[in-house]
Each structure stands twice: as structure tokens, then as C-alpha cells.
Amino acid sequence: MSGIHIFSSDVAFTPAVKAIQTAKGSRAAYAHVEERGGWRTEIDDNLAAFVADANSMYLATASADGQPYIQHRGGPKGFIRVLDKNTLAFADYSGNRQYITQGNLSENNKAQLFLMDYAHRRRVKIWGEARVVDDDPALLQSLMPQGYKARPEQVILFRISAWDTNCPQHIPQKFDAADVAAALAARDARIAELEAELAALKGELASAAG
Fold first, then answer.
1. pLDDT band for position 196 (50/70/90)?
2. 1, pLDDT greater than 50
3. Are 127 and 162 in contact (CB under 8 A)?
4. What is the pLDDT averaged over residues 140-168?
């Protein structure tokens, strides 16, 4: 059955995985998921919104002999774009020039995206196939976030096979520094506003008393 997917979740639930699920008692629960069709395979409004709000993700690839590699990708919110109901894309910026991800994809196009929203304790796992496009400057330019200071080198197209979400268990709640700074600035502005109102009120009371 290797390489043959009956359910979309078979992209991860291989026969070996299912055997362990059976041994550890979770197979029946996941069989119910399979009966409902398995995991989602198209980008819906919820996934599109999650991706549009992401400024960070991890891209996992493997070499032909199975050596795994995970690399972080980041940018302004919206740097990952939805091209159609099955395809995500993003501009790949010039970095340390090791090209491990590109090398892996040249011999094994299976890949996974892992997106984490720490503030709301949510995560999304996306399985699929990825390829590098380095001969389409118009596409590259269209995917480059405006004003972002990075040198785009190529495009990575990611065609979704399946995606799934996880429960928030064990996800630590963290916030982006920019979001924290904005919240503190709003708080400080409100404090200043209240202090000004209090000072004005004290002035009015002092005038009335005089």
C-alpha cells in the first residue's frame, strides 16, 4: 500500500503509523476521521485567514534518502499567498546560500509547512509537494511584500495534499514584540489621557475652592 492514499490523512497515517495507533489504542478515533473523508485538502476561508495573518512558518523537506531538514521562513504578515484553492506561494529570500531546501526539493518534492500562532495557541500542519520557480520574475515580484527589505531570489510553490489543526495543549502563549509594543503604547496613551483629565479636574476643584 506504500505510496497509495485512500484517505487524505494517509499522507501521514502510513501503515506503520496505523499499526502503532492500533497498539496504543487511538486507531478507532482516527478511523472515524477517515470515515468522514480524512483531513481537509483545499484552502478554505479559515486556512486562508490563518495564512494571511502569519509572519513566520517552518518548511520541512527531506533528501532522497530521507534525511530531514527544517528551515524557518518569515516575513511581514501576508508574505504567504494563496494562489488558488490548492496552492500556496511565497518569495524565497536570499540567505546563507546553503540551498539545503532547494537541493532536497530537486530530488524529493514532498514537503510540509508548519505554522504556529502562539498568541492564540493555534497551529496548522500542511502536507504537500513543493517546487522552486527561479525563472518567473513577474511572479516573484508579485509575491514580494511591498517595502520589505529583503532580496528575493526565487519562488516556492506549495501544492496542498492535506492539512490539519491541533488542539492548544502544551502550546505556550507568546506574543510578538511589535504587538506588545503597540499594546503598551496604547496603554501609555490612555494613562496620559486620564492623567490630563485628572489634572484638569483638580484645577477646576482648586478654582472652585478659591
1. very high
2. no
3. yes
4. 93
Pairing of strands 56-62, 68-74: antiparallel
Place of cell 517546487: 131
* Angstrom distance (rounded) from CA 165 to CA 113: 12
pLDDT band at 87 (very low <50, low <70, confident <90, very high): very high
How many CB atoms neighbour CB 59 within 10 A? 22
**Cell numbers representing residue 118 in the block:** 502562539
Residue 88 CA to residue 99 CA, distance in Å, equals: 20
Q: Provide the residue type at 155 as one letter.
A: V
Averaged pLDDT score across all residues of the chain: 93
Residue 6 clears pLDDT 70, i.e. is over it: yes
Phi, psi angles (nearest 5°) of residue 122: -130, 150
**Cell numbers 489621557: residue:** 193
CA distance 101 to 131: 10
Residues 170-180, mean pLDDT to the nearest whole number = 87
Burial class (CB in 10 A: 0-12, 13-18, 19+), 149: exposed
Q: Please provide the DSSP assignment of 11-45 as one string.
A: GT--HHHHHHHHHHT-HHHHHHHHHTTSSB-S--H
Q: Are 43 and 82 in contact (CB under 8 A)?
A: yes
Identity (one letter) of the amino acid at 191? I
